[in-house]
Design brief:
The protein has about 180 residues and is an all-alpha fold. Helices cover about 80% and strands about 0% of the residues. The longest helix has about 40 residues, at about 105-145.
């Protein structure tokens, strides 16, 4: 419950600052949201088929077998990774579109900001939606007496998202290099 209140307070504060400063049109990008959620749910159905929503039932009830645990944790890891990858893909596509149509410095500034919103959405969806759901399944698994070493094994094999986050930050640095070189 405390985490829910913390997330709610974070989102309310962030939304309040965005709307009070007048940057709401900058942070709300329908195409980026469509890309992120479209890719996440598309990959979810491609990977899990008709069993796509079966992992959601383990959010609130105890996990009693290793098979259920692996299904639920790998499901949420997979969706978390897909959200990050979709954000990076959206950033790269936006940058390609921006650089192919740039004629003035002002266009570089607006295009750079628009391209970063997609990465921000992917990262926030990953860390604020799918990671807490995975942690809830892990907490329920401890209730169901599932061995904690299984989660350690999954975390060791899940180093790929960290690489993608680093790639996303490299794209952010690349945007700043483009901005600086435009002076």
């Amino acid at each position: 419950m405390n985490k829910f209140i913390g997330y709610l307070l974070f989102i309310a504060t962030f939304a309040g600052v965005i709307f009070l400063t007048g940057y709401s049109e900058f942070f709300i990008d329908r195409f980026s949201l469509l890309l992120i959620f479209g890719m996440v749910f598309g990959v979810m159905f491609l990977s899990y088929g008709i069993h796509a929503f079966s992992a959601f039932k383990y959010i609130s009830r105890p996990v009693t077998s290793q098979k259920e645990f692996f299904l639920a944790v790998s499901f949420f890891d997979h969706l978390s990774n897909t959200a990050i990858i979709a954000g990076i893909l959206g950033t790269l596509l936006s940058q390609l579109a921006m650089l192919s149509n740039v004629t003035t410095t002002a266009e570089i500034y607006s295009g750079t900001g628009a391209s970063l919103v997609s990465f921000l959405y992917g990262y926030l969806v990953s860390k604020l939606i799918f990671e807490p759901l995975k942690q809830n399944v892990i907490r329920n698994a401890k209730i169901g007496n599932i061995n904690g070493l299984i989660q350690l094994h999954i975390d060791q094999n899940n180093s790929m998202p960290n690489t993608f986050v680093l790639m996303g930050f490299a794209a952010v640095v690349g945007n700043f290099v483009i901005l600086i070189s435009s002076f």
